Amino acid sequence: MKKQYIIPIFVPHLGCPNDCIFCNQKSISGQKKNLTKEEVKNIIEKFLQNIKTEDAQIEIAFYGGSFTAIEPKLQEELLEVAYEYIENGKVESIRVSTRPDAINREILKRLKKYKVKTIELGVQSANDYILKRTNRGHTFADVKKASKMIRWNGFKLRTSNDGRIA
Which of 10, 85, 98, 145 suits a disulfide with 29, CB 3.0-4.6 Å? Predict the structure, then answer.
């Protein structure tokens, strides 16, 4: 059985239109500035140097923001870097974290193009009152709709609150 590795790439607070009480990604990750393509490549290379690739299942994961709410041009720039590693056989897949209200057909089509396999939804509550009071900016209906679309389009779905498949 292959050993699983995740190469974490933090895009702190990018794409998130709100400042809810659940996260302050710049503080949590310690990363204060936004990433460039070169920095993403450097992070991936650094991790790959420390992984025995012959028995590894490696995934690049974009965490810490709402990846699919980032401006499409920047999304594609970051995904292109990760996709190169899939193309050359060094990495098996890509994972992105995002908001439930930042999922639509166009976005899912873009993610498929770059071989993203897993989408992790930020689901902090199933209670609309709590979601509103914490300034999440979406409802539980948005979570259900996004979950259906993600599964329907063949992606693995995980939730950020527990990591299990929803």
Answer: 10
Q: Provide the domain count of the chain.
A: 1
- For residue 104, give the CATH number of its domain: 3.20.20.70
Cα–Cα distance, 87 to 52 (Å, whole number): 18
What is the reported pTM?
0.81
